[in-house]
Amino acid sequence: MTEPGRRAHGRLRLALVGCGAMAGPYLAATSGSTAFSPTMLVDVAPDRARRRAEEYGIAEIAEDHRKVLGRVDAAVVAVPNHLHAPVTLDLLRHGIHVLVEAPMAMTVPDCEAMLRASHDARARLAVGLAHRHSSAARFVKTLLACRCLGEPRRFEIRAGTPYRWPAATDSPFRRATGGGVLADAGVHLLDLVLWWLGDYAEVACEEDSRGGVEADCRIEMRLRQGATGVVELSRTRELRNTVVLEGDQGSLEMGTDPDPVVRVSLGHPPVELAGSAPERRAAGEGLQRLLARQLVDFADAIEGDRDPLVPGAEGARVVALLEECRSRSRPLRHAWEEPGAGPAGETPPAKA
Description:
single chain, Rossmann fold, 2 domains, disordered C terminus
């Protein structure tokens, strides 16, 4: 095993653990990388790993993530959510630097164990909250930091589309594996709220899980600095797919896709500015570009012995918010349900 921060043969040897839907964008993002050399692919389904290995010219595959110990310097963990913590812990404890997909774990105690393991082994822990690597999201962060919008007052996020993610397993649809719209789209957008505007003071959540996983939810928040807002998420409906932030001196609107346009309105009377619309690209290319930036940041954190843009502590912060949402959730009533209907839309029995 190489020492933390030291490259083998000029590039860090990288393992990809999990060869599902995220494997293609991650492997494409490493093409031409001067920082990483993809060395091993790991998946419990060897045929899945073998297909990816043949596509990207990777020599070694394994069914067990522990097979990478002593053979790589870093790993991307892109397994189902409930496996993020145990797999990452095994790797960190052996000195392997880890970039784990979001959410970093299912519970705050698991996040804390991962942070301890990272510290004890002097191995870097980054969390795959890729939206932070968007130029638009970083521009919004700068606008807020320089108080161009004045005092933030309100935010509104509407993000939804019928579910189309090419998942390799049914884990996104099972409660035990950490599925649901909160854990896939919600974790990224709630992280942006915390990153841009700071910690929350109060949160309320309505969702439609009813013993399974939620496909639609609505979160209302009040932040410690005073701003209030709503986050609406859906796997069943096409929503506006924008973020709106309002301050006492201006407002902005940003799309939620990987290459969004940002429209800013400042002053009284308002002056409106807008970024140019991105050129059309192949599906998934925007995500690939964000992952490439994320991997560069991960490599720089290892080489420079510094925190990545999204360190484990901030990944844990949004997991705590997800836990708070679920602990305070109430049933979400859909428009097609009759007033007074029960949790599944059933009319309650008449009183005797």
